[in-house]
Amino acid sequence: MAVSSAPGKVYLFGEHAVVYGEPAVPCAIERRARVEATQRSDSRVRVHAQDLYLNGFSVEYAGPADDRPTVATDQSVLDLGMRYIDGAIDRARDLADQPEVGLDVTVESDLPLGAGLGSSAAVVVAGIDATARELGLELDSEEVANHAYKVEHEVQNGEASRADTFCSATGGAAKVEGDSCETIDAPNLPFVVGYDGGTGNTGELVAGVRALREEYDFAASTVESIGDLVRRGEHALDAGDVDELGRLMDVNHGLLSALGVSARSLDAMVWAAREAGARGAKLTGSGGGGCIVALDETEDTPTALGYTPECERAFRAELDTEGVRRED
Ligand code: MEV
């Protein structure tokens, strides 16, 4: 039996624009997906991923229970999750040159699926690592990142950057620009995450931005403006200037809204965070529903989000510095 885990991430800046070669800064967070792989004596593959949608997702700040929206488990999101897991298992079996080998695979995750916290990348990264090790193949984190990217790319119909998978495999803060990925120095920023209980379909949202960008010059310029903003953000990160990082996050959210990937619930959480005094707030990931990330070292933002009807969960997220990790 081999067990591996890998972290999720938030985007400090740059999602969507990264798909067109602009830079992005994703940061791994200490919430993980875990995959256990055990070789079988026959050639069947059985995946156990019960309650993947919310399994282990703990509530740290919550407002009055009556105000909370009910989470419906969306079958299409679960199906999509299974495609990532299947992709990871197939890739690792091919790499180990045992494409027909049978496996029992169990997946658990602290990360809600399709909500902007990089759950699919974390599952794919942990899945490739655990399955490959179970089949006698050790991969370093960059190799895992590379293969995980190929799985995401395929499941998302060719619409994926290297950002999520690189960040999950290596941990820490990363700068991703085209095919170039590097880990960069970052202070442990006071991330607060708000989650609306919903999901976005990354493939569809990325395709929507692509269509807008092809139709309107303003959308193409918006993508380039996000790239300029990320370059400014890198200087602010270098200087540890949290106020400037927050200002740039606010602008980044506005630019993502202009590209049509925000949602009423995400805007409501972003405004609740800003009104509570957060240094800045933006959606994270592909948008459409899911999570926002804010910067606030005080308890004001988590508390305010806990009382915001559109917010189902709010929690602090520490920077993860480890990336993919062996758990057996
Ligand atoms: C999704 O977490 C981030 C996007 O930029 C897509 C990608 O980078 O693959 C929207």
Task: Describe the protein's architecture and organization.
Helix content is 41%, strand content 21%. With 328 residues, it is of the alpha+beta class. It folds into two domains: 2-184, 2-Layer Sandwich (Ribosomal Protein S5, domain 2); 191-317, Alpha-Beta Plaits (2-Layer Sandwich). The strands form three sheets. A five-stranded mixed beta sheet has the order 3-4-2-1-11. Strand 3 (45-48), helix 1 and strand 4 form a beta-alpha-beta unit. Helix 5 (202-215) packs across helix 6. Bound molecules: (R)-mevalonate (MEV). InterPro entries: Galactokinase (IPR000705), GalKase_N (IPR019539), GHMP_kinase_C_dom (IPR013750), GHMP_kinase_C_sf (IPR036554), GHMP_kinase_N_dom (IPR006204), GHMP_knse_ATP-bd_CS (IPR006203), Mev_gal_kin (IPR006205), Mevalonate_kinase_arc (IPR022937). Residues 3-35 form the Galactokinase N-terminal domain.
- Based on the coordinates given, report the CATH architecture of the largest domain: 2-Layer Sandwich
Broad CATH class of the largest domain: Alpha Beta
Helix content range:
40-55%
End-to-end CA span: 8 Å
Strand content range: 15-25%
The hetero compounds bound to this protein are:
(R)-mevalonate
- Overall pLDDT: 90
Taken together, the total number of domains comes to 2
Low-pLDDT runs: 53-73
**Helix and strand succession?**
EEEHEHHHEEEHHHHEEHEE
Could you tell me the CATH topology label of the largest domain. Ribosomal Protein S5, domain 2
How would you sum up the global shape? globular
Strand count, sense and closure of the main sheet? 5 strands, mixed
